[in-house]
Amino acid sequence: MRSGSSAFCAILLTGIALAAAPSYLHSQENASGQAAAVAQSLPDAPQPQFEMASSDAQQAPGPQNQSIPQPPPNSATPSTPAPQDSSSSQSAAQQPDTEKNKRDKAEQQIKEQESQRVLGILPSFNISYRADAVPLTAGEKMKLAFRTSVDPVAFAVATVVAGYHEADDDDPGFGWGAEGFGKRAGAAYLDAFDGTMIGNGFLPALFHQDPRYFRLGHGTATHRILYALFTNVACKGDKSRKWQPNVSNIGGNIISGAISNYYYPSQNSGIGETLSNGFVVTAEGGFGSLFQEFWPDVSRKFLHKDPTQGRDAQARAEDAAERQARKDAREKAKQPQGQT
Fold first, then answer.
1. Which of 116, 120, 141, 286 is the most exposed place for a label (fewest CB within 10 A)?
2. Which whole number is the average pLDDT over 22-39?
């Protein structure tokens, strides 16, 4: 793997996003209020009619009392199953339904991610705009990584990178002309394929880490920039959902760099060079994270389209409400006791 090929497009796109973002970091959209839950009460059960029948029988003359047949014991309304039996059956049936609903929700979110494209072209399949994203299974991680790797844009980017390296006289061992260009394009695509499948698929499945970039989308520009850079070395765990060292991303860059030594010309391919390139590529990934963090702001400003579908506005409205609540609490604490 060569570090320059992974940063060429990311640096250009990130520069555009950061140049346009600071003037509109605070959205003026209003968030919708939370819907109030409405509880419905069950209707009262009908009362049995045997009591009225018995009272009428007691009011009749004595001889007639014996002529009125009494309802047999088995004529009462059918008894309902024991509460403990119904509750146990419901709990037994509810357990698989919960897991099934979770997987259905994850599948829906994956389809939503696979429709995300910058300018309708560049795929953003590994980006999540949801704070409540469901953790992915190992199979779902592999599927999402493969979907990114075989997207037509991945092949187009490889050809652009190959042309850049040939124009810059990089890797002369590949030769020149059509043959050299084809070798460079193949090497660039393998770099991207290996890095995506290992760093976003195999290793996250092995270490139970979430490979997606969870966009912040609110707060100050400085906070969002630091957050985007932080996610290159940290990620969320599948179970705890807490931040942990992103060994999947770093390890994927190093391993894919080691694999690239077998198809790049045999120069500068030692262990030290492999580790160095792996860390450089990890650092270069920060440009891509910065671009994905600020791209929705650019899209709303210039294209009048919101890729987050109002989630940024909702998050910022919640931040404003929280700040106002803290301000009210401080003002209340400053008031003398007994004063309303």
1. 120
2. 38
Q: How many CB atoms lie within 10 A of CB 7?
A: 19
Phi–psi pair at 37, nearest 5 degrees:
-80, 135
- The pTM of the full predicted model, rounded to 2 decimals, is 0.70
- Alpha carbon 289 to chain centroid, angstroms: 15
pLDDT, tens digit, 9 for 90 and up, residues 39-87: 343 344 444 443 443 444 344 444 444 444 454 544 444 444 444 444 4
Q: Which H or E run includes 114?
A: helix 83-114
On whether the CB atoms of residues 244 and 209 are closer than 8 A, the answer is yes
Phi, psi of 44 (to 5 degrees): -70, 145
153 Cβ contact list (under 8 Å, min separation 6):
121, 122, 123
C-alpha distances in Å from residue 188, one per residue of 7, 21, 150: 12, 31, 14
Using CA atoms, how far apart are residues 215 and 267, in angstroms rounded to an integer?
38
- Type and span of the H or E element at 285: helix 271-298
